[in-house]
Design a protein that fits this description.
Elements: H1 18-28, H2 30-48, H3 50-55, H4 59-75, H5 85-121, H6 139-166, H7 173-180, H8 194-211, H9 214-217, H10 223-244, H11 252-277, H12 302-330, H13 333-341
Helix pairs in contact: 2-4, 4-5, 4-10, 5-6, 8-10, 10-11, 11-12
């Protein structure tokens, strides 16, 4: 009944070899079944957070939803052949749009949370919607916080639209249905070992992409390159996560170390954003590009102090990043990773 294993050697007929026959059938669709399972789990994580993100009660819903969308975007190109040709591009673009919509909201959530933490660290109290006691909240930072909160409220409709797109009749409803009933056809059938080869090729490519930024590591002013390097680290991390089950968990340590690089670069980037953003709120005698006349400045030292705080933190984080990167290279991390992926099994659990 099956092409592979229908006849044996050494005097064994097909009826004497059902396990091998079944293995051939499993391997025929291993790549798509493996990939669609991972994608389905990421999709379920995305949908699970949609209602919480829509209500806006807890910013962590948006964060987890955005991470799930990024995992989907990382995995879909790897398993592109497992999707209907005409639908793949549409679904990929929709998920990319979700990441962008959630990204703006998430960035503002992080900024609002940081200002709250910064004020608390300095003994200030700036309640939302209330009038602080005299001296309890620097007016210019309070105005900055109000501005950020207003921007966050303005992007909430886009977050709500994302939740709608995931529901029945939404742009991605068919995507969810396809994942719920995976049927890899001839495009999804492959020769034994293809999944392992795909993992090796994809991981090696992502690792090389990250290593290409090595010269920028030692330039503290390479702001754009550091941001790009963070994206490259994120791509490698998500790719390692995709194939960790295939490795039997052997990639777990590599995932942890790359995530640490990604996290510190993310914190560096947050500081860079503040350093570029805060000068617009600096005290200014004349309205113009150096200051926002809509903000009443009564404590001219508060915004400069916040800017200096972010610049100092950026310097500290940059040094931590360089130390972490040097440690990776000293430990021959990339060579060890290359060797590990060369010995991945052909199928999960083997």
């Amino acid at each position: 009944m099956h092409r592979n294993g229908a006849s044996g050697t050494g005097g064994h007929g097909s009826m004497a070899r059902p396990p091998a026959d079944r293995g051939s059938q499993d391997q025929a669709a291993t790549t798509c079944l493996y990939g669609l399972q991972y994608i389905r789990e990421s999709w379920q994580a995305l949908v699970r957070e949609a209602e919480g993100a829509r209500t806006g009660d807890d910013p962590e819903h948006v964060h987890r939803m955005r991470v799930a969308s990024r995992r989907l975007r990382a995995a879909m190109p790897v398993f592109k052949s497992c999707f209907p040709r005409k639908k793949y591009r549409l679904w990929q673009e929709e998920i990319k749009s979700i990441t962008a919509s959630l990204g703006e909201a998430r960035d503002l959530d992080v900024q609002v949370a940081f200002i709250g933490e910064y004020l608390g660290r300095h003994g200030y109290d700036c309640p939302e919607g209330g009038r602080p006691a005299p001296g309890a909240c620097p007016p210019d930072i309070a105005a900055l916080l109000r501005d950020l909160r207003q921007k966050r409220r303005s992007v909430q409709p886009a977050v709500e639209a994302v939740a709608v797109s995931l529901g029945e009749g939404g742009a991605l409803h068919g995507f969810g249905m396809a994942l719920a009933n995976p049927r890899p056809g001839t495009r999804g059938r492959d020769k034994p070992g293809k999944l392992a080869r795909k993992a090796q090729k994809t991981i090696s490519s992502r690792a090389a992409g990250l290593l290409a930024y090595d010269p920028a590591v030692y330039d503290p002013d390479a702001v754009t390159r550091h941001h790009e390097m963070r994206i490259a680290a994120k791509r490698l991390r998500y790719t390692l996560e995709i194939f960790n089950r295939l490795s039997g968990g052997a990639l777990k340590t590599a995932i942890r170390r790359i995530r640490a690089i990604q996290d510190v670069l993310g914190q560096v980037h947050d500081c860079d954003v503040w350093i570029g953003y805060l000068p617009a709120f600096m005290p200014s005698q004349e309205p113009g590009p150096a200051g926002d006349p809509s903000i009443p400045v009564r404590d001219p030292a508060a915004i400069p102090a916040l800017l200096e705080d972010r610049a100092r933190e950026r310097d500290r984080l940059y040094r931590v990043f360089v130390e972490m990167w040097d440690r990776l290279k000293d430990d021959r991390f990339f060579e060890t990773l290359e060797e590990a992926v060369r010995h991945l099994p052909e199928m999960p659990g083997r």
